[in-house]
Amino acid sequence: MATVEVTFTPLPAHVRTARLVATAVARRSGVDESLLDEVRLAVGEACSRAVEAHRRHCPAEPVRVEMTDQDERFVVTVSDHAPTPAGQPAAPAAAAESTGRDGIGHDGGSVIPAGFGLAVISGLADDVRVVSTSSGVSVRMSWPSAAATS
Amino acid sequence: MDLKLGHYNKDGIEVVDVEGEIDVYTAPRLRELLIDLVNKNNYQLVVNMEKVEFLDSTGLGVLVGGLKRVRAHDGSLDLVCTQERILKIFRITGLTKVFGIHDTVDQAIAAKKSEK
């Protein structure tokens, strides 16, 4: 069971809420102060990605964020329910996928390629796992927490 | 307010002051402002990020988009930023090599003038 779970309507306005909650829970879990900016940024990126996916495929479905203390790690998992077509992985290496993801919302003319947000996340958390199935994508990130740093 | 925007002209260069958080929700406003400035023939831009508290890849996309627009008119878009927390995402993405990043607005303006 997650320490804290947040589900929110897939609207850009709520991404800030999710990253603030994640930062607060990370602090309580004992994640070092120097890492909290990375937590905030990485969770924000994962939530932004999920929101954009839901707005395209399932705007009535909420995005879910689970935060857990686990084995001296603070673990955050952001899950979406947007179907990933077979053969189109959501991993950072697939930045050239042709889903037409718009890095700046659905106003067209993206200058940031698809998968860029995941690439940023990979630069912020030393442990990132992306699981992509036909029913959605979950991005799992973790940072060392209090027990590891004591 | 999550994002506060302002702009003024100094020595022929349009300076954009950004305050607050630039993310998937607020970035469209910055994008619209940059588009508007370019449409009004402002091709030498300096974006002052000193009061930016948060910047994600959506915000980066807006800045890159602005850079592309001004470069289409042989212009430039430079940044003012000394905050390590903001510079970090530029470093992670390699965009420190793409943008001129200065410590103050005056230094950014002086650098532009010396390029001419």
In short:
The complex is a heterodimer of chains A (150) and B (116). Chain A is α+β, with helices and mostly antiparallel strands.
Keywords:
heterodimer; A: alpha+beta; Heat Shock Protein 90; 24% strand; B: 116 residues; alpha/beta; Transcription Regulator spoIIAA; five-stranded mixed sheet; 5 strands
Fold and architecture overview:
The complex is a heterodimer of chains A (150) and B (116). In chain A, helix 1 (15-28) packs antiparallel against helix 2. The model of chain A is unreliable at 87-109 (pLDDT under 50). Chain A has one domain (4-149): 2-Layer Sandwich (Heat Shock Protein 90). Chain A contains 4 helices and 5 strands, in the order βααββαββα. Chain A is α+β, with helices and mostly antiparallel strands. Chain B has a single domain, classed as Transcription Regulator spoIIAA, CATH 3.30.750.24. Chain B starts with a strand and ends with a helix. The radius of gyration of chain B is 13 Å and the shape is globular. The longest helix of chain B has 15 residues, at 57-71. By secondary structure, chain B is α/β, with parallel strands linked by helices. The relative contact order of chain B is 0.17. Chain B has 4 helices and 5 strands; from the N terminus they run ββαβαβαβα. Chain B has a 5-stranded mixed beta sheet with strand order 1-2-3-4-5, with helices on both faces. The interface between A and B is medium-sized, with 28 and 23 residues.
Structural topology:
The complex is a heterodimer of chains A (150) and B (116).
Chain A: E1 4-8, H1 15-28, H2 36-57, E2 63-70, E3 73-79, H3 116-124, E4 127-133, E5 136-144, H4 146-149
Antiparallel strand pairs in A: 1-2, 2-3, 3-5, 4-5
Helix pairs in contact in A: 1-2, 2-3
Chain B: E1 3-10, E2 13-22, H1 27-39, E3 44-55, H2 57-71, E4 76-80, H3 84-93, E5 100-102, H4 105-115
Helix pairs in contact in B: 1-2
